[in-house]
Amino acid sequence: MSVFPRLSAVRGSILGPVIGLSMAAIALQPASAADGTAVFADPSKIVAIGGSITEIVYALGQEKHLVARDSTSRFPKAALELPDVGYMRALSPEGVLSVDPTGILALHGSGPKEAVDVLKKTSVPFIEVPEHYSHEGILEKVRIVGKALGVDAKAEVLAKELDAKLTAAEKQTASIKERKRILFVLSIQGGKILAAGSETAADGMVKLAGGVNAVEGFSGYKQMSDEAIITARPDVILMMSNAGPTVSDDELFGNPSIASTPVGTAHKLIRIDGAYLLGFGPRTADAIHDLAVSLYGGQVTD
């Protein structure tokens, strides 16, 4: 259930009074702990933006504080009962503020920038959580969310548990010598492959699961030429399930550039739920294990 799907202008009854707040807004911004981490003065009504943020709040047992979530927050199932303020990269300030929050906990990359800038200028405390696609990045998110909600001790316990699980998951492929070259395909547009380069969640997961990103030379997501796909020589194609328009197997393996690579012969395609695969949250150790087993089968050790 969507509170405000996408409102047009950042004006009107909600934003008129809040943008004008100056000293009051500053006074209500998050306080800083001794280590510089932000803390909500009143965490009673929090909007969580970013699927991993919502998962961490639930994993800490602090879901009672949530009054809304964004559309990427689909796990755990109970989160779906919360009002939906929209897609994290297409937020409306009116939609976020409509649930009368006492704080906003947003994953880095939330947007658009104009909407986030407006939210940061209101009287509602806004804490942005960094996103690093790594083992340590997950632990950092847990600690920041825990600090923000005033449950540092619980966050440290969870961080240690996840640290142990992630370490074990990464060790499962330590003895594998022939690493699979993986092409993460986000979509196909006009017959061209949109693939994941470095500094992406897909690149981080591929490495944690013992694979090699077949794509080199750029960061983020980029449309690749046929020649670049052939040069990448992928052994496996990795895609998200439950995320936007589906690319059929026939469309994928019928692509001339794909057909000219090892994966075009082997037809090795792995589809995993996008939030589970790329969330970099409490479930990531399990996702690493599942991806590793899909890649290497019986070579994965416990």
Automatic annotation (TrEMBL):
A Pfam family assignment: Peripla_BP_2
Gene3D superfamilies to which the protein is assigned, alphabetical: Nitrogenase molybdenum iron protein domain
Domain Fe/B12 periplasmic-binding: 45-299
Extent of the signal sequence: 1-33
Keyword annotations of the record: Signal
Keyword Signal: yes
InterPro entries: ABC_Transporter_SBP, ABC_transptr_periplasmic_BD
Name used for this protein in its record: Hemin ABC transporter substrate-binding protein
